[in-house]
Design a protein that fits this description.
With 157 residues, the protein is of the alpha+beta class.
Length: 157
């Protein structure tokens, strides 16, 4: 019967990067589904960068864009900027938005649509590679250890 008490931390050390990779994969898949829905149902508007949000910018600053919907609602939103593209105040940018929920919007560019999803997939590969390396290292140490024990058992006999 399996028990966590019988497993050492070293034997289980590959599980954390394996789980983190799984979480990143799920986030990437969710982002891909959101993008596809937005591409299928979304409308394109021209927005204007009205400022930059440096408080919440994890990679420099994030553009604050104002755009008008087809039914003339004015919307202002801070957009994620994962690859740190440089936007200038007053710059015109295409915005893809959902007609029923205009706050569900992205800057209509490769960076705006695909960078978060690609980042998730790259992190998935990174975490899974770490898990694989840890597992291979553990197997190699276990193999060397068992070979050393069998050699010492043979010499004792």
């Amino acid at each position: 019967m399996f028990s966590f008490a019988s497993c050492s931390v070293r034997k289980m050390s590959y599980l954390l990067p394996l789980l983190l990779g799984g979480v990143m994969l799920l986030l990437g898949i969710e982002e891909a589904h959101k993008n596809q829905a937005l591409l299928n149902q979304g409308l394109v508007a021209t927005g204007t960068v009205v400022g930059m949000d440096t408080l919440h910018g994890y990679n420099g600053s994030q553009p604050i864009v104002r755009f008008s919907t087809l039914d003339t609602r004015s919307v202002q939103k801070v957009f994620a900027n994962p690859l740190g593209s440089r936007y200038q105040t007053g710059e015109k940018v295409p915005v893809l938005y959902h007609p029923q929920n205009p706050l569900q919007a992205k800057i209509y560019s490769t960076n705006g649509l695909y960078a978060p999803m690609l980042l998730s997939f790259v992190l998935t590969l990174l975490f899974w590679s770490i898990a694989l390396l840890v597992l291979i290292r553990h197997r190699r140490i276990t193999s060397i250890s068992s070979t050393a024990h069998s050699v010492s058992d043979q010499s004792a006999a």
